[in-house]
Amino acid sequence: MTPAYHHGALREALLQSAEAILDRDGVGALTLRAAAREAGVSHAAPAHHFGDLTGLLTALAAAGFARLRARLQAGIDAAGPDADAQLIALGHVYVGFARTYPGLFQLMFRSERLDWSSPELVAAGDSTFALLTENEPGGSAPAATLVVAMSRWSLVHGLATLLIDGRVIPFAEKAQVDTDHLIERVIAGIVDRHDKNRLF
């Protein structure tokens, strides 16, 4: 029996189905028809909500950025007022998000698959990165802040990518180092005692 959804619930159900396919089978298996089949609805339903596959992927990426931002904010809140603790928390949340949602994380940074003219995606992405690059009071000028931000983002994003590509664990095993401890030490390296600008 085909599930009965109201308008908003159907859109969300299609996004959830699309993410399930992404995680299970990869982006290559994600089509409008596959999302419809996964959700148990008419094959025409995704086109009604997203237009085409790019629209579906773009909406899914926007939802991913919103989820990442919420988790980053929760990490900041849990870390308390200490700037260094917030930096470490942001790094752990970012890497943890990539490890928990590898397919979604990779999609969010696949510019060739997304429509960056989409107001939904632009708003979600900008909101996330505004949180990540927020200056601490008395921080550096914008240009200097950007250098710090990009350096930290490169480190943490690179670590996240290496982890989900399976490239970290073999090196940790060869060195007889606990993987989680290695990750913790790498993330700790983002803290510069002479510069208190926020991570990324």
Overview of the structural elements:
- The chain is mainly alpha-helical.
- Helix content is about 70%, strand content about 0%.
- The protein contains 10 helices and no strands.
- Helix 4 (about 55-80) packs parallel to helix 7 (about 120-130).
- The longest helix has 27 residues, at about 55-80.
- Mean pLDDT is about 85; it is low at about 135-140.
Which structural class do the helices and strands define? mainly alpha
Q: Architecture of the largest domain in CATH?
A: Orthogonal Bundle
Order of helices and strands: HHHHHHHHHH
Q: Average pLDDT, to the nearest integer?
A: 87
Report on the biggest sheet.
none
Which labels suit this protein?
200 residues, mainly alpha, Arc Repressor Mutant, subunit A, Tetracycline Repressor, domain 2, globular
Quick structural summary:
With 200 residues, this protein is an all-alpha fold. The chain has ten helices and no strands.
Layout: helices, strands, pairs:
Blueprint: H1 7-25, H2 32-39, H3 45-50, H4 53-79, H5 83-100, H6 102-108, H7 119-132, H8 142-164, H9 169-174, H10 179-188
Helix pairs in contact: 1-2, 4-5, 4-6, 4-7, 5-6, 5-8
